[in-house]
Amino acid sequence: MISGALYALMAGFLGAVASSSAKLSLGSEYLQGMCEICLKAWARDGDHSVMEKETSPCEWLHIPLRLLFGGMLFTCNAVMWTFFSKALRHSSSSARATVTTTASNFVSSAFLGKMIFGETHAELWWVGISLMLSGLLVLHGSTPQPFQPAEAKKNK
């Protein structure tokens, strides 16, 4: 049986993948630029026939790629919500599942942003994520208190 924390981690990661897919599907310039770089590298390795043509495949290739990433956006969001629902079901508290998913999303977004888009983050961002992860450790280290009805509390 998979624990709620693992479901929450996967939900956060899938949320980050969905965000990256949205950025790729809505920004054709990035996809065209990557296509041009790949074609130049390919032509440098020996196949010069691609670069000799008047029109580049990159002028139309970005359209199916944008559609592919748009489909990934919706698929990753659907699977992310499924994992988040399972995390809520298998966790001892909804706060624990929510904070774990959020922290996983931020860390995964930072990693994917660096790997795909070459993004960097300021020191204040790293301080904030460190505080969030510290709070997550405190939350996961605490033991959940059993639920006591209001009537039992009044009788004490």
UniProtKB/TrEMBL annotation:
Q: Which residues cross the membrane?
A: none
What is the name attached to this protein's record? Transmembrane protein 42
Give the signal sequence positions: 1-22
Q: Please give the organism.
A: Umbra pygmaea
Keyword annotations from UniProtKB, A to Z: Signal
